[in-house]
Amino acid sequence: MNDQEYMQIAIDEAQKAAVLGEVPIGALIVYKDEIIASAFNLREKLQTTGSHAEMLVIDKANEVIGSWRLEECTLYVTLEPCPMCAGAILQARIPRVVYGAKDQKAGCAGTLLNLLQDDRFNHQAEVVSGIMEEEAGELLTSFFKELRQKKKKRTIEMDDNNKQ
Ligand SMILES: [Zn+2]
């Protein structure tokens, strides 16, 4: 499978998050052309700061490989990694990262910072960006749009209740 096909599966993971009311971000880890782990953002359900898709998928892959080192692996994620996840990617020694949409507010794989390609660190990763960017971004845009509409609706209902 190619990067685009793997990213489609990461998008499918992201959709599972959206169904649960989680911000739709999905991730996969591929080792020797095989998906060894997949995950999606679960921050609301777990109420833990570290439950981003990348952190969860790294944990799972560590378990499968039986090592904290994820050499020869590629991490696919629908949204550009934040500083925490980029840090974990370095710590796990992941050599290749492919992401979909850019994150203008937290992206640390080229947008705000590029933690994955700073030669002051002891590890650098190859970064491929913009794979299925539109699809991955659209998922987030429509999720937040829907969320705003729900909030607005709730506010209107509350106002109505107050009037009665
Ligand atoms: Zn993150």
Automatic annotation (TrEMBL):
<feature type="binding site">
    <location>
        <position position="82"/>
    </location>
    <ligand>
        <name>Zn(2+)</name>
    </ligand>
</feature>
<keyword id="KW-0378">Hydrolase</keyword>
<comment type="function">
    <text>Catalyzes the deamination of adenosine to inosine at the wobble position 34 of tRNA(Arg2).</text>
</comment>
<feature type="binding site">
    <location>
        <position position="52"/>
    </location>
    <ligand>
        <name>Zn(2+)</name>
    </ligand>
</feature>
<comment type="subunit">
    <text>Homodimer.</text>
</comment>
<dbReference type="InterPro" id="IPR058535">
    <property type="entry name" value="MafB19-deam"/>
</dbReference>
<protein>
    <recommendedName>
        <fullName>tRNA-specific adenosine deaminase</fullName>
        <ecNumber>3.5.4.33</ecNumber>
    </recommendedName>
</protein>
<feature type="domain" description="CMP/dCMP-type deaminase">
    <location>
        <begin position="1"/>
        <end position="119"/>
    </location>
</feature>
<feature type="binding site">
    <location>
        <position position="85"/>
    </location>
    <ligand>
        <name>Zn(2+)</name>
    </ligand>
</feature>
<dbReference type="Pfam" id="PF14437">
    <property type="entry name" value="MafB19-deam"/>
</dbReference>
<keyword id="KW-0819">tRNA processing</keyword>
<comment type="similarity">
    <text>Belongs to the cytidine and deoxycytidylate deaminase family. ADAT2 subfamily.</text>
</comment>
<feature type="active site" description="Proton donor">
    <location>
        <position position="54"/>
    </location>
</feature>
<keyword id="KW-0479">Metal-binding</keyword>
<dbReference type="InterPro" id="IPR002125">
    <property type="entry name" value="CMP_dCMP_dom"/>
</dbReference>
<dbReference type="GO" id="GO:0008270">
    <property type="term" value="F:zinc ion binding"/>
</dbReference>
<dbReference type="InterPro" id="IPR016193">
    <property type="entry name" value="Cytidine_deaminase-like"/>
</dbReference>
<dbReference type="InterPro" id="IPR016192">
    <property type="entry name" value="APOBEC/CMP_deaminase_Zn-bd"/>
</dbReference>
<dbReference type="GO" id="GO:0002100">
    <property type="term" value="P:tRNA wobble adenosine to inosine editing"/>
</dbReference>
<keyword id="KW-0862">Zinc</keyword>
<dbReference type="GO" id="GO:0052717">
    <property type="term" value="F:tRNA-specific adenosine-34 deaminase activity"/>
</dbReference>
<dbReference type="InterPro" id="IPR028883">
    <property type="entry name" value="tRNA_aden_deaminase"/>
</dbReference>
